[in-house]
Amino acid sequence: MRTRVKICGITRRQDAEFAVEMGADALGLVFYEPSPRAVTIAQAHEIIVALPPFVSIVALFVDAKADYVKACMAALPINILQFHGNESVEYCEQFNYPYMKALRMRDGFDLKEATRQYKSASALLLDSYQPGVPGGTGQVFDWSLVSNINLPVILAGGLNADNVAQAIKQVEPYAVDVSGGVELSKGIKAQDKVRKFMQEVVNV
Q: N or C: which end of the chain has fewer CB within 10 A?
């Protein structure tokens, strides 16, 4: 089974459509206002309203108020929630909906303990650690920090067409997550980079 691909930080309908055309399995929409890739509920609806079936829509939140998460869920055909801040297990579980928890990897981080803590998650997304930045750093972390766990691993952090094949070979994740690595500028995807990234994943 080939590694799945999530392209995150989609802000334009044409980028969503091209990502799907190239074979992306999931699209990430950022509902975190400080992010340069943030979208509103109305913008998200415009982006995904005409997408074909069998493409997962992932809604990313960072320490959001529960009411806002629920409003997004009510308005949009979201398949899975992604919590990218300091959300507790209790917070993540309150929505009674599939979720994945992002964890920022660094020396001394106990991945196995985090896995036990978030055992109700559908997957764990492993990203790079940078103080004060919840994600989208464009930095690669030390992949040797990833240990075998009993939840699907989604590998993120600084991935691009030049390193994704090696990342897949070394970590063997369920999926890879890319944002800045396929962009012209923040939130604007580059078709040539998306195409090359997908080719690298498929050819591993």
A: N
pLDDT tops 70 at residue 135 = no
Give, in words, the CATH class of 4-202: alpha beta
- Give residue for tokens 């750093």: 137
Sequence-ordered strand ranges (E) for 48-169: 56-61, 80-83, 99-105, 123-128, 153-155
Q: Which of 72, 92, 127, 177 is catalytic?
A: 127
Residue 9 token pair = 């930080």
Q: Report helix, strand or coil for 102.
A: strand
| Cα-based torsion angle of the residue sequence 52, 60, 123, 138 in order, rounded to the nearest 10 degrees | 100
Q: Give yes or no: 92 in active site.
A: no
Cβ burial, residue 130 (10 Å; 0-12/13-18/19+)? middle
Q: Where are the domains of the chain?
A: 4-202
Give the orientation angle of helix 41-48 with respect to helix 66-75, to 10 degrees: 30
Is residue 72 part of the annotated active site? The answer reads no
Q: Which of 8, 15, 72, 177 is catalytic?
A: 8
Please give the pLDDT value at position 139: 83
